[in-house]
Amino acid sequence: MITTMIRITLVVVFILLIHRGEYSPPPAPSPRPGREYIEVGILIVCLLITPYIKFGLFWFSGWKSAYFVLGLCAPLVMELLVRRRKLSVIGFSIPVNRRVLAFVAGIFSLYLISRIVEPLMLGKGYQFELRDFISITIIFPFLEEVFFRGLIQTRLESALGAVRSWIVSGLLFGFFHFYLLYLVPGRAPDITEVLGLVYLTALGMLLGVVFAKTRSLLPSFIIHAVNNLSF
Questions:
Q1: 3-state DSSP call for residue 18?
Q2: Who wins on pLDDT, 96 or 1?
Q3: Structural domain range at position 186
Q4: Residue 228 CB contacts under 8 Å (≥ 6 apart), including other chains
Q5: Helices 217-228 & 191-214, crossing angle to 10 degrees?
Q6: Is 53 a domain residue?
Q7: Does residue 21 fall inside a structural domain?
Q8: Chain centroid to CA 158
């Protein structure tokens, strides 16, 4: 519990530090914010339905297969087919803002050190399973960054502005994990798990402000991946 509270505090500090300074204009300003809200609503509905769609794909089973397919198809459908615009709009581009990239390097280092040191402090050994590593550290962080930051946050930013968009996308990120882990199975979180959800929400906001400042999914993906890193 204390470890989680320390992580929440550090994440909030990094959010405040990265937030300082000006934001770049939205990559795709919209004259019709109503359209942005409708498309965000469609994306959220797709996320809410996903846990109830279950089939097998590769080594995934149950809802994870649907989540995998949704994450891959959503940017292709929503950007290339519906909007007819390049994927660079949603963050498939080279990151900018060297100041924020320096913070990203610091966050990466802290997370990596904690992932190495924490098992030793708890008396646990390191266990490595390739499929779990690929899924938890690479595939799902990438898909979530595309979905929450690239697709949802970009649309919200066109309607709400940079700051409110990463706040809302962070709240949605935390709520989706609450929905997936607790509402769908029908169980209530204990106090430790509530703190974990607060941490995930704060992490979502951190990833959002990093994305808003760098205009690239790569830095937020790196932070997300190393946060999920397990041995």
A1: helix
A2: 96
A3: 2-16+30-228
A4: 136, 137, 140, 141
A5: 160
A6: yes
A7: no
A8: 19
